[in-house]
Each structure stands twice: as structure tokens, then as C-alpha cells.
């Protein structure tokens, strides 16, 4: 199930394998395919997303980022914490305003962290219901450090 | 060499040994396997207990004359060698013997 | 000492409930062990040989009497009546039950304590000089900086799933009592040429399988920039640290494979980026707010006393008492290394009694040191005889601080699931060999540090004499290392050669010490003699040959 901006949402993107033909409409492709077919993909004038594997930094995208409306951060396993940095860089440094989506092996217990670094969409496994998702965001009321979510920190509240 | 099957209980972490389709706490009461195939069958059965979230990390280890070969398993079966008043040694005596030492205050949780 | 405000209190209370929910889901089977393990470790909970082990954070080692009493209560109620102080200034309980841990955390929260980030692949609890606020040589108290880092790193959204653990230490004195250069990162409070205070930041130290000493990446980081600078280091590490091999995942491997120049450049580049995109600055008021909690106690106007140097009291004073910056005061080390005891262990009754002693002598705080001792930072010199007498009754007056029997020792195979060999019995055997105080004092400063496996929790690389337990086909063996130091003259010990058996290692240590006694020059510590002569003369006798060498 897709959760976007904290609510269940319909997924309007189709993720396309590297060797599959492109359907009409919004698609998500790998960074590799994006590089190989960059001009064709941009010329479609459709919404376009790419998937970043956990070892792919968004900084490599350069100004192409402006043409993307979605970046999917892939978690190969939940212990791989690189996507947390990618999300934060996307939001804080590269000022990306499109959708950042978490996909793959992440846990309920990481949702609040992901939210804080700027992820706003989640492809939830069946074990995480929308109710649980909402609960994850209420566990810790306050935060000590600034991040990409613009929340007021404890230091500022003091 | 004969083998025993061991695991830790999830809820309190205590060391367990396999006997007849279930678990005991005292190594001296554990079931010894001389046949590797039988041991593997028991290990597979133990994994059912993992799936039911009752134990973690079951594995087989070797014993000789009823005593573990490796120091690690001797200590797991007994308790800290530097605190003989604590652990299983306090409850059941040292492994391979039957003389119980002073019982330890411990409300162990059973499965 | 630092006191929680409403925000800190709520944070810790909510973290406890968060963990309670994690435990509940584990017991229900909603979390597998593979999923639960990193989560429980982030809250200090291990599964060891006999049971779970809970590691409680003692931020930068500072404790109040009230906290000691709570630890004693937990030891009795949920454990087996004792606890263990570790080399990271924490306390461990060896027998808690998983189902009880949320309740233990709730109890800890009532005295402003917790287990947050005492393990796991995250920024660990921050350590600091255990003489902070009392040492005559410090520029300022390092603990406000440590507290600032503690808060910033608590549930950091970006850096909680790092390639591996990340340990930070803070010191503010030229004499390093916190093993700075063995940390993933370290902050040294320094004054620049203009007399302004700032931070020298180190990166890339660590022990374990491949020990390295840290080097400097920030020569002088301005005060408001510290957290931004640390964030730059963390990001370079999170992005580039190896995740394919657990033994190569620490920042020390990255730092020493790309080298000092490249590391500096990457950190500075990242720091510039952080600055450009608007970054975390610590306002002066916040630093002042935190620092105020660490204001020194109201010292009485006293003058220095003539302290006894003979008899039992005199011995204890000579060995365990250190000068204080305030006239008439002293720093007293309570050794947790009684001859034949378990290094770092303390009973619930002793915890209570030490709390009572603190109350009776007006002592508001006590410290846990990375050397696994306790430190009373602000004792009136005129109280020393009475304090000593009380400690004697408690079995806590061993006058061996810094001597050969003041051994750092990890729990080893008696408790630890990762161990290759036992370490405590070896420490006990060595301590018994050298129990004679005249002999200990003649030997002088000699730091023995021992680990039960390559993870090096017992800092064996940093021992003047280091001992490492290894496993040879299920049998315990011990390697000897010489020449390590964790102080400002930091060095990594050198392995002597093949390991010694369980019953040979104490003999080998004794022979090595005898060589030192024969070959030392006046005023030389063991370490100095080793550095002058190298491994050869020690190796020649350690394996049982005769000592021929003479001057
Ligand atoms: S050094 Fe090894 S044996 Fe000792 S406590 Fe650490 S992991 Fe365990």
C-alpha cells in the first residue's frame, strides 16, 4: 500500500523494468535506464521518477533533478542507512520538492526517521497498516536535532 | 562425537537443551545424539520453536563423556566460572555431576 | 550535573514506551529476531551466553547518589545483586529478562537514566575525562560539550543505521584520560593562539581487529560550528563507510584507506555544503544553559593539608588520590579492582553504601572511569581519612589505582557471547601474583588491559601490557602485546609472538615485568623502558629463556 503525505494514496506511477517497453503515463525507471535513455525519457513530457539504489547518491543527478517528480529510495535491507542521507541531501541541499518515496526493506521503527529526513511517501508492506503507520509518527513527540522536516527542535522550544 | 542441541529462551534469554521434543534447563538431562541424521531432525524440530517465538538461535554442539568439548559450552552449561554462586551451577551443580549446590534464587520462566 | 528539563524527561519516557512496543512485537512474533536485534541493541540490550545483558548509559560517567541507589535497586529486583562498570563508563547488568526490560527502563527514567544508544550501529553514548571539572590541567569542563553531543545524537534521524558503531569522546586537558585517539571521532577542547577556546576534532581511531589511532581533521572548529562539523563527518561516513564486510565497516578503515588529506577534504567539502544550505548552529545561550548545570559545587575556602604518606591511609592517598584544582580538595579513585575480584564489578550493597558515603560527606556526584573504577571528584582533603576508613569497611579501599593490579578487563567468555577466551580469571591470577603492594609500587605505573576476543572491549591494544584471548580449537590461548598506550602519548601495542596457554600467561607477564625491573633506568615507567629497548629483551624471556642481559 502507498501512503503519501500520511494518507493512503493511489500509486499513479508504474515502475518499469530496464528491458520492458514504456507504457503510457507516469513511469519510474532505474538510474541506469535514465542515463541510457535520458533524452527520450525527458521528451515524453510525462511525469518521471527514478529509483536510486542505496549506493547511488542523488548528487550525481545534477540539474536533471528538476525534471523529475519522484525519487524512489530503495532499501535493499533495513540496516543499510544510506537512503537516510540521500533523502536529507535531496531536500536540504538539492532543494528537491517532488515526491521522495521509500521502497523495499524498511521497518515500522524507521518510519519516523524517514519522515524526518524528508521522505513523504512509503510503499508499505502488508504488516504495516495505515493505523500502525500513523502510530509510528506519534511515538516521539519532540526532536533534538534539525532535519529536513523543518520541525522545531527541543533547543528552539527551550 | 555425540551432540547436544541448545538454544536460548526468547523471553528471558536462559540457556536451554533439547530433550524429547521439548526443552530442559539442565545439560545433564539433555538428549544426546550419536546419529547425525537424528540430530539434524531435532534441529529442524527446534526451528519450529524459533518460528513460534519461543527460543532463538538453536544449534548443535559436541560432547565427550557427557561434558561439552568447548570451553564456551562448558561455561554456558554451568554459569560464569568466576561466580560459581550464579547460573545453572548454583542450581544443578557443575555439569556432569549430580550433586546440587545451594539453589539459586531465580523464578525461571518456563516455555 | 545535568538535570533533565520537561523535554528531556518526556523524550526518555517516550523512548521507554517505544521500546516496550518493540519488545511486545518481538514476543508476539511481529518482529523476527533479525529485525529485533538491531532495535534492541540500539537500546543497549544484548543476548549473551547465559542471559540478556542490559547496558545502561552513564553519560560521560557522571552519577548522583540517587542514581546509584536506583542501580542498586534494579540489581536486586531484576538482576542478581550486582552490576559491572565497563570501559565506556557504562553499567551492565548480566541477567535481566527480556520481558522485564521495559520496566527497568521506566525505573531508570525516574532518575534521569536510560540505555539509549549504548550499543548498535549508531552514535554511541559519549564519554569524557572522568576527572572533568576537578582536574588541575583542564581548559574547561568537557561535559557540557559531551551533553550537547548526546542530545544531538539521540535518535538522530539520519545517523541511526550507520555501517557500524560510532564512538565519540571529549577531553579538555593536555593529559588524555579518555583514550581520545582510539575513538571513531574525538573532540579536544583547545585554545588557539588568540586565546580563544574551540575544538580540535579527530577522526579514525579504533581498536578491534585492525587498530588505528585517530588523526586531526579539524584543527580549530569554532564553538557554534561543532555539531555541523560532526554532522559532516557522520555524513561522509554514512555514505562511504563499507557495508559489505563487518570487519571493515568502522570509520577507521575508511579514514586510513583514503588517507588523511582526502578525509580532511571530504569532511571540509561536506561541512561547506552544510553551511551553504543553512545548518545547525548551537546558539551561545544553549551552550550556556547546558554549561550552567556543570558549574562546580560551592567549594569551601580551604587550604591544602599535609596529607599522610605512610600507613594504609598514606598508601591509599599516594596511589588513589590526585590533586584537585581547588585548594583543600582532592580527587579520590575508588578502585573496583580488589585482588582476586572481578574488575569493574560492584554489588548492590556497595552501590548503596557508596551513595550513603556521598550523602554523609556532602558529595553530590561520582564518576565512572573508562578504567572501570569510580572517582569521587570533589573530596575535602580533611575528609580523606574518614572516607578511606569507610571504603575499607566496604572492601573498596584497594590502594592500586594506576598500578599493575588495576587491570582493565572485559567480561570475556564468562559472560560474553562473542568471546574466544575467559579474561577475568587471568586478570585475577595476575593480580594475585602482584598482590604485594611494595612490589606494585616498585613497579610503578603499569597498565595491563585484557580482552577476551579481537573486539577489544578490554582495550588490549592500548595496554602497556595487553592480553588478548584467542581460541585454538576450542582451547583458550592468550597473546601478549607490549607498548600500547591510550594516553596523550598514544600507541598501539605490538604482538609478541605465539600465544600462551591459560596456565602460562601469568608467568609470561611476570617474566616481562622482571625484565623491566632489571633494565629500567631511573624514573622510567615500564612503557618508557619498552620504548627504549623494543620487544627483543622482553620476548627473549617471556617464553621461558634465561635473562642474560645486563647493563
Ligand atoms: S572483547 Fe570480546 S570477549 Fe571481551 S567483552 Fe568485548 S566482545 Fe566480549
From TrEMBL, chain A:
Can you tell which superkingdom this protein's organism belongs to?
Bacteria
**One Pfam family hit:** DUF934
Whose protein is this, by species?
Answer: Rhizomicrobium electricum
Q: What is this protein called?
A: DUF934 domain-containing protein
**Record-linked InterPro entries:** UCP030820 (IPR008318)
TrEMBL record, chain B:
Q: Which Pfam families match?
A: DUF2849
According to the record, the residues making up region (Disordered) are 86-111
InterPro entries assigned to the protein according to its UniProt record, in alphabetical order? DUF2849
Its name, as the record gives it, is DUF2849 domain-containing protein
Origin organism is Rhizomicrobium electricum
TrEMBL record, chain C:
Task: State which residue ranges cross the membrane.
Answer: none
Pfam family name, one:
NIR_SIR
Q: Which residues form the Nitrite/sulphite reductase 4Fe-4S domain?
A: 119-272, 405-545
The UniProt entry, under InterPro entries, shows: NIR_SIR_4Fe-4S, NiRdtase/SiRdtase_haem-b_fer, Nit/Sulf_reduc_fer-like_dom_sf, NO2/SO3_Rdtase_4Fe4S_dom, NO2/SO3_Rdtase_4Fe4S_sf
Tree of life domain: Bacteria
Limits of the Nitrite/Sulfite reductase ferredoxin-like domain: 52-109, 342-392
SUPFAM superfamilies (UniProt xref): Nitrite and sulphite reductase 4Fe-4S domain-like, Nitrite/Sulfite reductase N-terminal domain-like
Coiled-coil portions: none
Task: Write out the entry's keywords from A to Z.
Answer: 4Fe-4S, Heme, Iron, Iron-sulfur, Metal-binding, Oxidoreductase
Among PANTHER family, the record links this protein to: BLR3264 PROTEIN (PTHR32439:SF9), FERREDOXIN--NITRITE REDUCTASE, CHLOROPLASTIC (PTHR32439)
Q: What protein name applies here?
A: Nitrite/sulfite reductase
> What high-level taxonomic lineage is stated for the organism?
Bacteria, Pseudomonadati, Pseudomonadota, Alphaproteobacteria, Micropepsales
Amino acid at each position: 500500500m502507498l501512503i503519501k503525505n500520511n494518507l493512503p494514496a493511489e500509486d499513479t506511477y508504474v515502475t518499469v523494468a530496464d528491458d520492458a517497453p514504456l507504457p503510457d503515463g507516469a513511469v519510474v525507471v532505474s538510474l541506469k535506464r535514465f542515463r541510457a535513455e535520458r533524452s527520450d525519457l525527458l521528451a515524453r513530457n510525462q511525469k518521471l521518477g527514478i529509483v536510486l539504489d542505496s549506493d547511488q547518491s542523488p548528487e550525481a543527478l545534477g540539474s536533471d533533478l528538476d525534471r523529475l517528480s519522484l525519487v524512489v529510495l530503495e532499501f535493499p535491507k533495513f540496516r543499510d542507512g544510506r537512503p537516510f542521507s540521500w533523502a536529507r541531501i535531496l531536500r536540504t541541499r538539492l532543494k528537491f520538492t517532488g515526491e521522495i518515496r521509500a521502497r523495499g526493506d524498511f521497518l515500522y521503527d524507521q518510519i519516523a526517521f524517514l519522515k524526518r529526513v524528508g521522505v513523504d511517501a512509503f510503499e508499505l508492506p502488508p504488516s504495516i497498516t495505515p493505523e500502525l503507520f500513523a502510530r509510528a509518527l506519534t511515538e516521539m513527540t519532540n526532536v533534538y536535532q534539525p532535519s529536513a522536516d523543518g520541525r522545531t527542535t527541543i533547543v528552539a522550544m527551550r | 562425537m555425540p551432540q547436544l542441541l541448545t538454544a536460548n529462551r526468547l523471553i528471558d534469554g536462559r540457556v536451554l537443551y533439547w530433550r524429547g521434543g521439548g526443552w530442559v534447563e539442565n545439560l545433564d538431562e539433555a538428549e544426546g545424539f550419536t546419529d547425525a541424521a537424528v540430530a539434524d531432525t531435532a534441529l529442524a524440530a527446534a526451528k519450529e520453536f524459533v518460528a513460534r517465538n519461543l527460543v532463538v538461535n538453536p544449534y548443535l554442539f559436541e560432547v565427550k563423556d557427557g561434558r561439552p568439548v568447548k570451553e564456551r559450552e562448558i561455561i554456558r552449561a554451568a554459569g560464569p566460572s568466576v561466580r560459581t554462586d550464579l547460573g545453572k551451577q548454583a542450581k544443578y551443580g557443575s555439569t556432569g555431576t549430580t550433586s546440587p549446590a545451594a539453589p539459586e534464587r531465580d523464578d525461571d520462566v518456563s516455555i | 550535573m545535568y538535570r533533565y528539563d520537561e523535554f528531556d524527561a518526556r523524550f526518555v519516557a517516550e523512548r521507554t514506551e517505544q521500546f516496550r512496543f518493540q519488545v511486545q512485537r518481538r514476543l508476539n512474533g511481529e518482529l523476527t529476531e533479525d529485525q529485533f536485534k538491531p532495535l534492541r541493541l540500539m537500546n543497549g540490550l544484548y543476548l549473551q551466553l547465559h542471559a540478556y545483558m542490559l547496558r545502561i548509559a552513564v553519560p560521560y560517567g557522571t552519577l548522583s547518589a540517587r542514581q546509584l541507589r536506583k542501580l542498586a535497586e534494579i540489581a536486586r529486583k531484576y538482576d542478581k545483586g550486582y552490576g559491572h562498570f565497563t570501559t565506556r563508563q557504562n553499567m551492565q547488568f548480566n541477567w535481566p529478562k527480556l520481558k522485564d526490560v521495559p520496566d527497568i527502563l521506566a525505573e531508570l527514567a525516574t532518575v534521569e537514566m536510560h540505555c539509549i544508544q549504548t550499543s548498535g550501529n549508531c552514535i554511541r553514548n559519549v564519554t569524557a575525562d572522568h576527572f572533568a571539572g576537578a582536574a588541575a590541567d583542564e581548559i574547561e569542563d568537557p561535559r557540557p560539550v559531551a551533553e550537547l553531543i548526546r542530545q544531538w545524537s539521540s535518535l538522530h534521524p539520519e545517523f541511526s543505521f550507520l555501517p557500524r558503531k560510532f564512538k565519540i569522546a571529549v577531553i579538555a586537558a593536555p593529559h588524555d584520560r579518555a583514550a581520545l585517539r582510539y575513538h571513531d571521532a574525538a573532540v579536544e577542547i583547545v585554545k588557539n593562539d588568540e586565546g580563544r577556546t574551540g575544538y580540535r576534532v579527530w577522526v579514525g581511531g579504533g581498536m578491534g581487529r585492525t587498530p588505528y589511532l585517530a588523526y586531526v581533521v579539524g584543527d580549530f572548529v569554532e564553538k557554534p560550528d561543532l555539531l555541523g562539523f560532526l554532522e559532516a563527518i557522520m555524513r561522509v561516513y554514512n555514505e562511504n563507510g563499507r557495508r559489505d564486510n563487518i570487519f571493515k565497516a568502522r570509520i577507521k578503515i575508511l579514514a586510513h584507506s583514503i588517507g588523511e588529506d582526502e578525509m580532511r577534504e571530504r569532511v571540509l567539502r561536506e561541512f561547506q555544503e552544510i553551511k551553504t544550505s543553512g545548518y545547525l548552529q548551537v546558539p551561545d545561550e544553549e551552550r550556556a544553559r547546558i554549561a550552567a548545570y556543570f558549574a562546580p559545587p560551592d567549594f569551601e575556602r580551604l587550604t591544602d593539608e599535609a596529607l599522610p604518606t605512610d600507613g594504609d591511609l598514606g598508601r591509599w592517598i599516594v596511589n588513589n588520590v590526585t590533586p584537585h584544582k581547588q585548594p583543600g580538595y582532592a580527587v579520590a579513585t575508588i578502585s573496583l579492582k580488589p585482588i582476586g575480584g572481578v574488575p569493574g564489578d560492584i554489588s548492590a550493597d556497595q552501590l548503596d553504601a557508596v551513595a550513603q558515603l556521598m550523602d554523609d560527606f556532602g558529595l553530590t556526584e561520582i564518576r565512572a572511569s573508562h578504567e572501570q573504577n569510580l572517582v569521587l571528584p570533589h573530596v575535602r582533603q580533611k575528609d580523606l581519612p574518614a572516607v578511606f576508613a569507610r571504603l575499607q569497611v566496604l572492601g573498596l579501599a584497594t590502594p592500586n589505582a594506576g598500578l599493575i593490579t588495576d587491570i582493565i578487563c572485559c567480561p570475556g567468555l564468562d559472560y560474553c557471547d562473542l568471546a574466544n577466551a575467559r579474561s577475568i580469571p587471568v586478570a585475577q591470577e595476575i593480580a594475585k601474583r602482584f598482590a604485594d603492594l611494595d612490589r606494585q609500587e616498585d613497579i610503578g605505573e603499569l597498565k595491563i588491559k585484557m580482552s577476551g576476543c579481537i573486539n577489544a572491549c578490554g582495550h588490549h591494544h592500548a595496554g602497556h601490557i595487553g592480553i588478548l584471548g584467542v581460541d585454538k580449537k576450542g582451547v583458550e590461548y592468550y597473546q601478549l602485546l607490549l607498548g600500547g598506550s591510550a594516553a596523550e602519548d598514544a600507541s598501539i601495542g605490538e604482538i609478541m609472538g605465539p600465544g600462551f596457554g591459560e596456565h602460562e600467561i601469568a608467568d609470561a607477564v611476570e617474566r616481562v615485568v622482571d625484565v623491566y625491573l632489571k633494565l629500567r633506568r631511573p624514573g622510567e615507567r615500564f612503557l618508557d623502558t619498552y620504548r627504549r629497548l623494543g620487544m627483543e629483551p622482553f620476548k627473549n624471556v617471556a617464553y621461558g629463556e634465561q635473562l642474560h642481559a645486563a647493563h
